[in-house]
Amino acid sequence: MDDKTKPDETGYRFIGKxxxxxxxxxxxxxxxxxxxxxxLDGQAYAVMVRSPFPHARIVAIDAAAxxxxxxxxxxxxxxxxxxxxxxxxxxxxxPKTKFDMKLTGPxxxxxxxxxxxxxxxxxxxxxxxxxxxxxxxxxxEALDAAEAVxxxxxxxxxxxxxxxxxxxxxPVLWDEVPNxxxxxxxxxxxxxxxxxxARAAHVVTKNFHIGRVTGVPLEPRAALGHYDAxxxxxxxxxxxxxxxxxxxxxxxxxxxxxxxxxxLSPDVGGNFGTRNRTFVxxxxxxxxxxxxxxxxxxxxxxxxxxxxxxxxRDLVTxxxxxxxxxxxxxxxxxxxxxxxxxxxxxxxxxxxxxxxIPGSYAIPATTLRAIAVFTNTMPTNAYRSSGxxxxxxxxxxxxxxxxxxxxxxxxxxxxxxLVPPKAxxxxxxxxxxxxxxxxxxxxxxxxEIADWKGFAARRREAKRRGKLLGRGLANYVESxxxxxxxxxxxxxxxxxxxxxxxxxxxxGQGHETSFAxxxxxxxxxxxxxxxxxxxxxxxxxxxxxxxxxxxxxHAATVFSKAAVDLIARGREIAxxxxxxxxxxxxxxxxxxxxxxxxxxxxxxxLASEAARHKLPDALKDGIAVVTDxxxxxxxxxxxxxxxxxxxxxxxxxxxxxxxxxxxxxxRCINPLIVHGQTHGAIAQGVGQAMWEQIFLxxxxxxxxxxxxxxxxxxxxxxxxxxxxxxxxxxxxxxxLGIKAGGEGGTTAAPAxxxxxxxxxxxxxxxxxxxxxxxxxxxWTAIRKAKAQ
Length: 788
Hints:
There is one protein chain. The protein is α+β, with helices and mostly antiparallel strands. The chain is 29% helix and 24% strand. It is built from 20 helices and 28 strands. Strands 3-5-1-12-9-10-11 form a seven-stranded mixed sheet, with helices on both faces. A five-stranded mixed sheet has the order 7-15-14-13-8, with helices on both faces. Strands 18-26-27-28 form a four-stranded mixed sheet, sandwiched between helices. Helix 10 runs parallel beside helix 11 (388-406) and helix 16 crosses helix 17. The longest helix is centred in the last third of the chain and has 28 residues, at 551-578. It is globular. The model is unreliable at 1-7 (pLDDT under 50).
């Protein structure tokens, strides 16, 4: 037996092993199946006419000139959508698991999300909103015709910032919500919080705006729609966070039966939450395909994606921390205001952040006011670690500020107030039940791998070169919940493979490899014999897709349940094949054995042998099961990040010189994949801290970051090698003890990078800086501090 396949101390042969991703050979040799790779005979091309105004009434659309352009097959508007009785996209923004924070409208009422018509007939509510669609023989002809469509607008006053939208007299986006506030909910114990603040020895207050960013997936948004007139059946090719969800929403838009739509999403060219919700173009290409009797394809340009992809973050948070005379945290107050944009597509960021405002700390009393506000901006959606980097930034910056104001060591202050392991499971002061974790150990381990003790010498050396060296530390705890239902259909095929149909759907996370590792260990079959089938709703009937760090936890749980059923079914079939009694057959060390015979079979051998036998009707499908599972309990990955930055005080140029993190993901299925996910997650969080920003001109409402020329992105050559380690404190909520990996790196990064920058600038009197902390922002802060 090769060392790599020997069981470890847990008894697993493949779980926990750093197996290279099997899908990489296909993806890096150009054999991926991304949306734009699909083409159908006779396909036409769609181009959107988009609003140049942030808020404008659509008075009239004149398409006469556009329709005369050679190659044009149709021009479609919101009036046409209404005439064909197309429904709005049924975005259901309020999370529905049992333990989500229960957001409501003001005074406990329902949440108004704003109907998301494929094309609006009344008015445009943000720059870049599609108001008409042109379909032509070629994309060039469609582009020409789109320029010829004349839209007469009546410009309306607009509002971009959430706090501005709440002020009396602000422009109103929806008549149904005259103050633009669609969510207002209070969590926690108001009375206990007020009492604690009244007796506090110290109170620290901070206000932050965690700005707006976007996902910038590798493949811009695309969709290809087909309609078969003979069968009345639609087919959509579109990369997404979950094909089943997209299908369930689009059948409501089109008003058709479920069996009349197939959604294909084999490979997804990047997501990060951006593609978790249905886009209008998905419905438009299907509708247009029926209208013109030909397949219709849409592919966004990169600049178009910057205008019309769902965006992330954009939270205003006002936080207060109360401490006693021994520097214990005794209470916290917060007001979190989420800018949901022109429509409320998802409240996942506000909900998930609401449950974690105390972070990793034992704070006995907390009050949170959670608010969501409409503005004339692109809707926001879940974006990697949805809602958690924002609240982590707030609490960690608050703790740093408290340490500075009290003149105490920031590590000692954290250590005194972290939730201790003996308190687990720990219910925080807004009601979330942390499942497991060793927060102080994470911090100690991170300090060790970051060479915390060597910092003073490195700082002196930097100073000799005229540079400022700073160090930041941030603890984090995040939650993983996600859609509660998952289904697996598993069949051991006579050809010597195990087919696994599952509704979670990757966008680069390596599911084909890591899922196979779990199946391999549960059934004792070679990992290479496992085929993961996903992303096709003709095969995948049920599943929650990939979001909120849910995929591995839900998949492994339903696999574990399915394995029990498969073994039971295998025992029955083995008894027939062996000519033995079922109760004499057992499954031991990967083989079916019976005390009545010397025949033994593993799963693959048994499937092959069973194919030669006539099985009773109850077993005619062979070794196959369909297993459903519903899991509502959240898990809470956690960890610590440490960052060092070096700043040139003359130019504001900043370089990250060290970055270390410890991430508790529960049971780690594939460390190689988890480390890769962690590295990418860190880069994404660092991007927000230092470069990324969706910036809208306040006077015109126009986006000024509409291309990669304007929108800063992290690159490999400006990031240091990361030191990352995986902590495995198992969760008691699921059979394998899995929490989640892939988002923790993002969760802590904005807080730790800004902490490091401010530590470097502290001797110059700089106490705060707004993200992104660009060289210009740093240079300006230095000059301002010197002037004061």
